[in-house]
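Supplementary Methods, section 5.1.

A reviewer requested that the exact input to the structure prediction be made available. We therefore reproduce it here, unchanged from the version used in the analyses.
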Amino acid sequence: MYYWKIFIGSPKNLSDERDLIKLTIKKLNEELYYQKIILQPFDYKELFSEPIPPQQSINQHIKNSDLVIVLFGSRIGDGTLEEFHLAKNQYADGKIKNLMVYFKKMPKESMEDPGPKAKAVLDFKQSIENTIFFHEFEDKTELEKLIIKHLRNWIYYQKDIFDIITQYEKRIDKNIIETMRVSELPFTDKIFELLETKNEDELRQLEDEAYNRYLDLQSHLFNSSHEQCYLIAKKLYRGIQENNYALCRHKAFIFPIHQYLSKMIRTSDDKKILIKNLINWLVSRDKVYPTSRDFAAFELGMTKSFEAIQELLFALADNNELLPIRYYSAMSLGMIKQREVINKLIDIYQAESVEQLQVVIAHVIYYLLT
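The structure derived from this sequence is encoded token-by-token as follows.
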């Protein structure tokens, strides 16, 4: 038998919903018994005799859970917020199997004129919408249906995940894993010196020279000093800003250029526009050059662009799409490091006939789980 512990957290005003989830899971166990799976739901009330147990003690039980469900309603609750952030970090680090988050829909009048507590919920929801998937429910009936659907889906994919990991764990290509781990580069003293001693026109001239030199040489012959890579990244940054995808049409760019470029994009005041332009390049099959679309797919991963996940999944799943774009889309989904996409990746893996893509998708799943 597999015994999976499920912690359920919520503010006190959603205690009925918590009880409903526990009852729903216990009913679900009747059908799971024959799959040798037992789900063990619990909340803080079942752990402690005192009315308000120490948060530290609750947190320890969260760390020992397999799955965490968190509910929010018309108010946040400091304890629930702490439980959410702990579970989110545990999930991102692969220490719990899943995190499911639900918001109870507020009455229309609360949305139009929210008080301080309701506004805190709305602000919190907005703050996480680009970092984690969540669902909304109207009432307990809808919540029950969502819980049953999501738990069944999650359990269904656990066996597939195990099969894929077992198949590939002894022949993992470290180069693929290391590519997904590539991080941004810090600016060097020489780069800061450039920025301090050159005016805007001089910098643009240096950017053009470095960019043209890169295009004229084979990548392995290029002088890949930090300053040269920075200058090319700056040239590409301006190109994305101006929606000039032709700058990326000629050849692929080496890692250090992408590493500096992703840092520029992620810290830019124009980040939303830059990401939007890259997404448009990726999806504009009939308009944008294939090499520019490869570039966009990879850079969306480097910049950890959560908002591009659906477009990357679509490109990966599209059998009519060019193979390099599908490959870089898969790699980017690994770089973004959102484990919620694993089920979609399994579906794509199982439908895929190209072995090279199956291999990279399996590596992405492995990377997301480790």
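The longest helix spans residues 140-168. These observations are discussed further in the main text.
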